[in-house]
């Protein structure tokens, strides 16, 4: 499957309800999104209101501006510090703030921040409105993909300012330097150098062009807290500037601010291409319409009003957190070498980029969330993300774990890109250079590849990932040499084994038989951690002996050997060979009892650990390693238990629709949102969809009707319709199922059948039908 002639994903977003009142029949999906869900404990990239899906601009108010965690927009805070344009994985920048009265810009955000109230606030996808009570200013925000648009309604004042505090500390760290220059009395330009972080190791530039629809009287600069007076240019560390106006009562002043990671000229091109006019309401309407188009690819009826709000809020998150960083002409900044280099995306016959270039956190755990959702509903996003990773391999020699600002970042462990590519390729999503992708992924599977970098280890050559041990012994012991974090040998071994299987499936799909057999054999390495005495996965020392201080569960983020988790959870981490795992446990009944006990013991904990206490639970849907556990009963002859526990997890861990619940603090750029969508529609893939012949496991849907529209550029069918009879809070168990009007007595459907289009009909009841769904599928134990 080849990509569309041009793919400009960022022409979307907008208006959505923040209430959970009864929903009118004519309301659209976009009207149901509540951006403020679980914003009491935001992460910097979590909240972006005036943003298009994957937009380069992520414009929203900031109430906290220091730290990656508990930063950005926090619902419980009383003051707004600024409106910044970038809320991305390890990227932040261009904070602005309108003020009137005595000039406070050089004194910092603590001096000029303003109180505000939720009573006068409107927060919707693509639009945010707040009243800055201190200044009596109404601020409205919207955006295109690469341009933020502001509309400020001011009181009468001879001292009206818009501050550009570009040198201020923002989110992940300090800004090394910033520069602002006046072009004329309606335009300024600038650049900011973001300091490197322990995740994004290199300093990274962002450029901007800002224009006003009214002439300003002067540009005022400051540096190191001292006013520089009127100037045409301000440059240096801890510097910023403001433009000054005279305004009448109720006068609206508009600003457009375009971003680029390549140059000021790139920002100007983005501005000219995406927003040549000054019609704020038009931008807001267009954002609304296009967001609704994206969200409407899945349409639902039934459920409670709160469940529908949460569903579309989940879907919104799945289309939000990973950001475009290429210009409208396809230019992007490559930071994989010693110096920044501007490169360009492939162009179609019409001269436009085939795909954008993306910035994203590591794909750790995405095989149980966005891989499944994107490949089914948004294949063009998956295609473009694959293309980004292939570009980075050509640029820097590695398929990335998670790129930021053109840098490699080595957050978390392993090579989660391989499951992403295997899922994409084996579902026919192939608009990138698949042979080059395979070359890079194969390199990652040996010493010196991306797996060999431990968490946050940016040393070269890498050593902390333990690949020399894995290649020689088939497992990674504890105490691996090298720098970096998450040097957890047991977790590495289990994830490497799964990733070997994914690479084997990719090789098989591409006709590389020798590689298929090699990596399929190596994927059995998980067995080398099985301790038959404890019947759990157990870490090994370098000597080959089991670790002596083995703790299957304990307080804290990790137990020895396991990455942000423990043995009780990671012992289920064999998604590619559940039949083999179940056999080691002693058969389906023994495994079922083990797994069911974990869930029963976790009911009063709502199936989540407090964030940072992941090793303390038997089930933890707050973090990635355990997010398939409720679906595993489909593999041990008890699909009714998957139906039971998936519904319970969905409604108890992820059902919240207030600012104080919904994701439990670690949404990770759409992963938990995507998981919530999958649980609600009753489709999942334990193996991450990476199989050469993918299947979807079935559980009971939350809604009476779900319709998924397919992208005909990738799939032959028009849509999948899922209907559910007798759905209620009590009726969670599947009684019978039909596929295209024929009885279906199995708990799975093949991807190739699903994307041909059709209708899946469920009938539910209050008691389990233990005879339904037992027909064996590939890899499913009888």
Automatic annotation (TrEMBL):
<dbReference type="GO" id="GO:0005975">
    <property type="term" value="P:carbohydrate metabolic process"/>
</dbReference>
<dbReference type="Pfam" id="PF17678">
    <property type="entry name" value="Glyco_hydro_92N"/>
</dbReference>
<dbReference type="GO" id="GO:0030246">
    <property type="term" value="F:carbohydrate binding"/>
</dbReference>
<dbReference type="InterPro" id="IPR012939">
    <property type="entry name" value="Glyco_hydro_92"/>
</dbReference>
<keyword id="KW-0378">Hydrolase</keyword>
<feature type="domain" description="Glycosyl hydrolase family 92">
    <location>
        <begin position="266"/>
        <end position="766"/>
    </location>
</feature>
<dbReference type="InterPro" id="IPR050883">
    <property type="entry name" value="PNGase"/>
</dbReference>
<dbReference type="InterPro" id="IPR008928">
    <property type="entry name" value="6-hairpin_glycosidase_sf"/>
</dbReference>
<dbReference type="GO" id="GO:0006516">
    <property type="term" value="P:glycoprotein catabolic process"/>
</dbReference>
<protein>
    <submittedName>
        <fullName>Glycosyl hydrolase family 92</fullName>
    </submittedName>
</protein>
<dbReference type="GO" id="GO:0005829">
    <property type="term" value="C:cytosol"/>
</dbReference>
<keyword id="KW-0732">Signal</keyword>
<dbReference type="InterPro" id="IPR005887">
    <property type="entry name" value="GH92_a_mannosidase_put"/>
</dbReference>
<dbReference type="InterPro" id="IPR041371">
    <property type="entry name" value="GH92_N"/>
</dbReference>
<feature type="domain" description="Glycosyl hydrolase family 92 N-terminal">
    <location>
        <begin position="32"/>
        <end position="260"/>
    </location>
</feature>
<dbReference type="GO" id="GO:0000224">
    <property type="term" value="F:peptide-N4-(N-acetyl-beta-glucosaminyl)asparagine amidase activity"/>
</dbReference>
<dbReference type="InterPro" id="IPR014718">
    <property type="entry name" value="GH-type_carb-bd"/>
</dbReference>
<feature type="signal peptide">
    <location>
        <begin position="1"/>
        <end position="24"/>
    </location>
</feature>
<dbReference type="Pfam" id="PF07971">
    <property type="entry name" value="Glyco_hydro_92"/>
</dbReference>
């Amino acid at each position: 499957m080849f990509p569309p002639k041009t793919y400009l994903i960022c022409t979307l977003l907008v208006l959505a309800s923040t209430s959970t009142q009864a929903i009118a029949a004519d309301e659209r999906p976009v009207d149901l999104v509540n951006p403020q869900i679980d914003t009491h404990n935001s992460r910097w990239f979590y909240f972006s209101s005036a943003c298009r899906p994957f937009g380069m601009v992520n414009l929203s108010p900031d109430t906290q501006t220091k730290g990656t965690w508990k930063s950005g927009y926090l619902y419980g805070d009383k003051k707004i510090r600024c409106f910044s344009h970038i809320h991305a994985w390890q990227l932040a920048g261009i904070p602005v703030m309108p003020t009137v009265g005595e000039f406070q810009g050089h004194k910092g955000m603590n001096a000029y921040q303003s109180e505000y109230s939720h009573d006068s606030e409107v927060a919707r996808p693509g639009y945010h409105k707040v009243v800055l009570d201190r200044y009596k200013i109404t601020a409205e925000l919207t955006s295109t993909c690469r341009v933020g648009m502001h509309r400020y309604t001011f009181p009468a004042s001879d001292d009206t300012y818009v501050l550009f505090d570009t040198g201020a500390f923002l989110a992940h760290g300090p800004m090394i330097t910033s520069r602002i220059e006046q072009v004329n009395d309606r335009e300024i330009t600038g650049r900011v150098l973001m300091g490197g972080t322990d995740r994004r190791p290199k300093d990274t530039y962002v450029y901007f062009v800002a224009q006003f629809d009214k002439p300003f009287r002067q540009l005022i600069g400051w540096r190191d807290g001292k006013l520089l007076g009127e100037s045409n240019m301000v440059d240096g560390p801890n510097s910023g500037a403001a433009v000054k106006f005279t305004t009448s009562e109720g006068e609206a002043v508009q600003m457009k601010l375009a971003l680029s990671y390549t140059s000021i000229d790139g920002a100007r091109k983005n501005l000219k291409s995406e927003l040549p006019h000054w019609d704020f309401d038009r931008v807001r309407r267009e954002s609304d319409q296009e967001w609704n188009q994206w969200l409407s690819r899945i349409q639902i009826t039934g459920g409670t009003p709160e469940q529908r709000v949460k569903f579309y809020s989940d879907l919104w998150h799945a289309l939000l957190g990973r950001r475009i960083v290429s210009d409208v002409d396809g230019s992007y900044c490559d930071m994989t070498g010693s110096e920044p280099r501007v490169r360009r995306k492939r162009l179609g016959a019409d001269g436009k980029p085939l795909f954008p270039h993306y910035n994203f956190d590591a794909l750790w755990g995405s095989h149980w969330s966005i891989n499944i959702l994107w490949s089914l509903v948004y294949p063009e996003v998956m295609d473009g993300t694959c293309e980004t990773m292939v570009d980075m391999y050509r640029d820097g020699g590695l398929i990335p774990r998670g790129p930021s600002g053109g840098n490699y970042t080595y957050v978390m462990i392993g090579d989660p890109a391989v499951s992403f590519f295997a899922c994409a390729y084996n579902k026919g999503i192939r608009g990138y250079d698949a042979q080059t992708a395979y070359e890079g992924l194969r390199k990652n599977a040996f010493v010196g590849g991306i797996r060999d970098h431990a968490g946050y280890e940016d040393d070269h050559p890498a050593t902390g990932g333990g690949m020399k041990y894995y290649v020689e012994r088939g497992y990674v012991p504890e105490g691996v040499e090298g720098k970096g974090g998450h040097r957890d040998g047991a977790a590495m071994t289990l994830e490497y084994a799964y990733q070997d299987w994914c690479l084997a499936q990719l090789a098989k799909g591409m006709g590389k038989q020798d590689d298929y057999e090699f990596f399929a054999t190596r994927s059995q390495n998980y067995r080398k951690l099985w301790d038959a005495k404890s019947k759990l996965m157990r870490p090994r020392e370098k000597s080959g002996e089991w670790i002596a201080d083995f703790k299957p569960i304990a307080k804290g983020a990790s137990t020895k050997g396991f990455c942000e988790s423990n043995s009780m959870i990671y012992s289920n981490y064999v998604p590619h060979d559940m039949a083999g795992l179940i056999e080691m446990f002693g058969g389906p009944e023994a495994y079922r009892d083990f797994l069911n006990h974990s869930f029963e013991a976790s009911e009063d904990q709502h199936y989540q650990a407090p964030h940072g206490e992941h090793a303390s639970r038997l089930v933890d849907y707050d973090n990635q390693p355990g997010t398939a556990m409720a679906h595993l009963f489909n593999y041990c002859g008890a699909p009714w238990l998957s139906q039971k526990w998936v519904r319970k997890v969905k409604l108890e861990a992820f059902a919240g629709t207030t600012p104080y619940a919904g994701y439990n603090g670690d949404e990770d750029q759409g992963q938990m949102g995507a998981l919530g969508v999958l649980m609600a529609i009753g489709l999942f893939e334990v193996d991450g969809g990476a199989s050469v012949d993918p299947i979807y496991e079935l559980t009971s849907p939350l809604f009476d009707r779900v319709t998924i529209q397919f992208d005909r550029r990738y799939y032959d069918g028009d849509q999948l319709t899922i209907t559910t009879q007798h759905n209620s809070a009590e009726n969670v168990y599947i009684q019978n199922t039909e596929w295209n009007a024929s009885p279906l007595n199995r708990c799975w459907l093949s991807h190739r059948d699903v994307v041909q289009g059709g209708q899946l009909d469920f009938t539910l009841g209050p008691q389990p039908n233990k005879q339904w769904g037992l027909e064996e599928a590939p890899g499913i134990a009888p």
